[in-house]
Amino acid sequence: VALSIAVGSVLGTRLAVSRVGTKIVVFVGLVMMAGAFAWINAIDLSVGYPEMAAQMVLLGAGLGLTTAPATDSIMGVVRPEQAGAGSAVNDATRQVGGTLGVAVIGSIFSTLYIRHLADSPVLQGLPAPVRSVAEEGLAQGLAVAAQSPGTASGAVRDTVTEAFLSGMGAGCLTAAGICLAGAFFVLAVLPAHPVRSQA
Prior knowledge:
By secondary structure, this protein is an all-alpha fold. About 80% of the residues lie in helices and about 0% in strands.
């Protein structure tokens, strides 16, 4: 992922500056990220490492294409003596966006994961304290499955895994929708090339 982000950042900057412009590069990057999230949503228990690696490369490349030109657009509108303030605004937007993204998508995932477990007849047959442990997350749910007796172990494991994929899928679809909305917002608002402030 880190390598694909680095490659995308270098490529995105070159394309934005010398060829197609910032707007198109950022738009393509956001669409690539949306595609990666939608692809991740489609995985099931049979997914292999090559497919997962391809998804991460697509996501990283899209992020790389988006980040550097977007940063250039922010820094381009501030005067040289205000470069520090512009950098702070850029950092703040990334931090706020990242925090909100984790909070919103994490909440969606957690809600659906817990709801899936609560609606499962398999989990309803377990004691309430044990169900509470399983609802804390995938690792805890798999630990509960490992400690369940006999055939219940496999049933609990499958239920927990399905709940995880359900929550993750909804979170990924939400992220894909946000990326697509951002892509079309970029087409409507972002200048084709960064606006340079006059000193």
